[in-house]
Amino acid sequence: MKITVKRWHAIAQWQWDTGKTDDNGDAEEDVCGICRIPFEGCCPTCKVPGDDCPLIWGECSHVFHMHCLLKWIGTAASKQQCPMDRRPWGETIAHLSVHTPRNLDRISISSDRREKGRRE
Amino acid sequence: MSVVYSRRLKKELQEIQIEQADPTKRAAGIQLLQADDLKIWFFSIEVLGESLYKNEVFHLMVRFDPEYPFKSPAVQFVVSDKVKPPVHPHVYTNGHICASILGDDWSPTLSVMAICITIQSMLASCKKKELPEGNDDYVRTAPDNPKKTRFVYHDDTV
Ligand SMILES: [Zn+2]
Ligand SMILES: [Zn+2]
Ligand SMILES: [Zn+2]
Fold first, then answer.
1. I need a surface site. Which of A20, A109, B40, B97 has the fewest CB within 10 A?
2. CB within 8 Å of chain A, chain B residues 108-127
3. What letters, b where the CB count within 10 A reaches 16 and e where it falls short, cover B51-75?
4. Is B63 a residue whose pLDDT tops 90?
5. Ordered structural domains, chain A, with CATH
6. Annotated active-site positions of B, please?
């Protein structure tokens, strides 16, 4: 059987490289502990996920939406501590806007097959 | 104003309602009684198994700050004709609770359920039923909202 590809569209997903070994995108840890929204989505104050709503890593290796974390650090109650472990918050700036489109290998191609007797 | 973060509270409520419907997931002894809005919720709490509070049921009132989860909710035991607060060294007779998780040790990664479980275990581990020191003085002058009180935290393990 001969298949002629009439058109195809690629679907690529991106996700933040949170340094977690496990690739399961919907794992519990892939949710910001402050707003409970997945890292792939943006914080509640932003509209569009991506570089405008980056993630921030603490020296303790905990990850949050930068906007969520800064809002917490901005309160007196935070005592400038990580909300997860209460260690003094220090961030590793180098990580700030790294994102890796590591799911690019999952490109899906949909093809319309032309078969006898089928009209479109 | 973090009205936008109310989505998180809605999510917490949905999760609690799902858990409550599933006996395998439900935290034993903790039940959501009422949550008509995102301002005030009521829970019933009892300690199952052997404890000083066997067969006693308490009601917890949780009032949310618009800044939740950046600010802790105001949590206290309900005092009414029907329900009484537990006699506990960290619980005043007006229902106010002295627990660091509700004040200095609050973190936005905690949740309402985490508070309920902490309070339940505070009761479970109690060795002696007694009122907090200075209860009468505190109750006489206490503000309506326990969050306005500056508590000095006692040993939370008691
Ligand atoms: Zn967040
Ligand atoms: Zn944002
Ligand atoms: Zn941390």
1. A109
2. 108-109
3. ebbeeeebbbbbebeebbbbbbbbb
4. yes
5. 50-119 (3.30.40)
6. 98
| Distance, CA of B81 to CA of B17 (rounded, Å) | 28
Say yes or no: domain B2-136 is CATH 3.20.20.70.
Answer: no
Q: How far away, in angstroms, is A9 Cα from ligand 2 center?
A: 30
The pTM of the whole model exceeds 0.90: no
Q: For chains A and B, count residue pairs whose Cβ atoms are closer than 8 Å.
A: 37
| A114 backbone dihedrals φ, ψ, rounded to 5° | -100, 120
ipTM over 0.90: no
Tokens coding B149: 């009180």
pLDDT (tens digit per residue) in A12-38: 555 566 655 444 444 446 899 999 999
Taken in order B73, B79, B83, B87, the sign of the CA dihedral is: positive
CA of A75 to the centre of ligand 2 (A): 17
Contact between B70 and A83 using a beta-carbon 8 Å cutoff:
no
Q: Which of A36, A45, A83 sits opposite B8 (nearest CB)?
A: A36
Beta carbons of B27 and B117 less than 8 angstroms apart: yes
**Interchain proximity A44–B7, CB inside 8 Å:** yes
Contact A44 B106 (CB under 8 A): no
